[in-house]
Amino acid sequence: MSTQAPEIIYMDNNATTAIAPEVLEAMLPYLQEYYGNPSSMYDFARYSALAMAKAREQVAGLIGAHVDEIVFTSCGTESDSTAIFSALRRFPEKNHIVTTRVEHPAVKTLCDNMENLSGRKYHVTRLQVEADGTLDMQQYRDSLTDDTAIVSVMWANNETGVIFPVEEMARIAKERGILFHTDAVQAVGKIPINLAETAIDFLALSGHKLHAPKGIGVLYIRKGAPYMPFLNGGHQEHGRRGGTENVASIVALGRACELAAANMEVENTRVRALRDKLENGLLTSIPKVLLNGNKHMRLPNTTNISFEYVEGEAILLHLNRHHICASSGSACTSGSLEPSHVLRAMGVPFTAAHGSIRFSLSPYNTETEVDKVLEVLPEIIAELRNLSPFWEENSN
Ligand code: PLP
Q1: 330 CB under 6 A from ligand 1?
Q2: pLDDT-based confidence at 390, cuts 50/70/90?
Q3: Interatomic CA distance for residues 260 and 368, integer angstroms
Q4: What is the distance in A from the centroid of ligand 1 to the CA of 80?
Q5: Which of 58, 99, 163, 233 has the fewest Cβ atoms surrounding its Cβ within 10 A?
Q6: Where does the pLDDT of residue 333 fall: very low under 50, low under 70, confident under 90, or very high at 90 and above?
Q7: Are residues 279 and 335 both part of a single domain?
Q8: What is the distance in A from the centroid of ligand 1 to the CA of 99?
Q9: Do 89 and 168 contact (CB within 8 A), yes or no?
Q10: Is-above-0.90 flag for pTM?
């Protein structure tokens, strides 16, 4: 493979995003000239400390938080783990976690593992979703008990883009005196968030989903929320997360949040229009396709479409020939194709779950790129279906 990046059509922004040029420009001085440790006493280190303070304001500004509520971490996964472990350790007498069947592995695997601990037994309720990926609020209310230590529900789903009513869910949890955490890794920067007006106690976000680099995240901790650090060490982040801060990436995340806040309305209107053009084009030009996820309660950049009787992996390989990057709802592991747990929870039929493709756009996508996908994908699907014995049996 050549080391020269080819011209690509990148529509996998829920996996990761390009670093914005403005973000790169903001962070470079902190990789080169201003390398001081922000905890050091001399003036040179103050450049780093001041830059971090500014970034904290920029992050807080995007999500309607106070600067003291922002804790920098290494990624979204760390933020999720920290919030959940914190609640379990602060309330050792409680053994119950409420979450959903469609969480990202950052929450799902942790909950699965907590249930299978030897010695201590945690009990996990995983809320079922409807066929369109939305939640039944009565089921949620009924799941809360006096034993519940924390609720962890994602703000927006990474595969379908479906948005959950986490503000209302947090209010309900608060009425019961239960802590509420949301994995907002896919929501931050794509939809307006004002934490000051919510009862959410913890929120996880990740830099590389909003045009900052990989390896930087934030845990929002509501002022006064019971908390216990996960990484114990130095006094960084006011003792809430040990470890020397990743100053350059923190600066980058701050700038990315500032850009997202300034451009959200305009950019997302444009991105939504591109997404809708792509989605409508595919749904009308290709037979036997299904849209996965509620059409309205959805992130503006995401569409997840099933092409029946075709393997998602095969579609991706053919798209790759045209330098088009997307992702599929099944993961090919050791020769067996496992359909996504999200689509399975929604009850998407087997033949459709296997052929699902997620396109996730960003402000860097263009109409020409959408036109290119609309030109090549119908041909790819027709070609693959011609090779499929199942298609012959089911095409009418
Ligand atoms: N939560 C969601 C919903 C995600 O989509 C992701 C990344 O794909 C994560 C958590 C993990 O974030 P990170 O890669 O920063 O650990």
Answers
A1: no
A2: confident
A3: 24
A4: 9
A5: 233
A6: very low
A7: yes
A8: 16
A9: no
A10: yes
pLDDT in tens, 94-122: 999 999 999 999 999 999 999 988 778 89
Same domain for 230 and 297, yes or no, is no
Instruction: Give residue 336's pLDDT.
Output: 52
The arithmetic mean of pLDDT across residues 34-47, rounded, is 97
Q: What is the CATH number of the domain that holds 378?
A: 3.90.1150.10
So what's the pLDDT on residue 255?
A: 98
Range of the domain at 32: 21-259
Q: Does one domain contain both 45 and 162?
A: yes
Whether 131 maps to a domain, the answer reads: yes
- 79 and 219 in contact (C-beta within 8 Å)? yes
Q: How far apart are CA 148 and CA 158, in angstroms?
A: 26
* Whether residue 350 is found in the same domain as residue 290: yes
Distance (Å) of CA 148 to CA 97, 264, 377: 6, 36, 47
**Which position has the token pair 């959410």?**
200
Decide: 314 and 326 in contact? Cβ < 8 Å: no
Phi, psi for 219 (deg, rounded to 5):
-115, 120
Nearest C-alpha to atom 9 of ligand 1 is from which residue? 76
Residue 14 lies in a domain: no
- Report how many domains make up the chain: 2
* The dihedral formed by the CA atoms of 60, 64, 67 and 71, expressed in degrees to the nearest 10: -60
Report the C-alpha gap between 76 and 177 in whole angstroms.
Answer: 25
What is the spatial distance between Cα 213 and Cα 256, in angstroms, rounded to a whole number?
A: 10
Q: What share of the chain is helix, strand, coil (3-state, %, to 5)?
A: 45, 20, 40
Query: Closest ligand 1 atom, CA of 208?
Result: 15
Rg over CA atoms, the chain: 22
Supply the pLDDT for residue 334.
Answer: 41
What residue type is assigned to position 386 of the chain?
A: N
Confirm or reject: Cβ of 154 under 6 Å from ligand 1: yes
Q: Is residue 325 part of a domain?
A: yes
pLDDT, position 330:
59
On whether both 54 and 186 belong to a single domain, the answer is yes
- For residue 267, what pLDDT is reported? 86
- Which amino acid, residue 19? I
The CATH number of the domain where 207 resides is what? Answer: 3.40.640.10
What sign for the dihedral angle of Cα 12, 13, 17, 23? positive
Distance of CA 46 to the CA centre of its chain: 33
Task: Report the alpha-carbon distance of residue 235 to residue 242 in Å, rounded.
Answer: 6
Quick one: 215 and 361 in the same domain? Answer: no
β-partners of residue 345 are none
- Stated length of the chain: 396
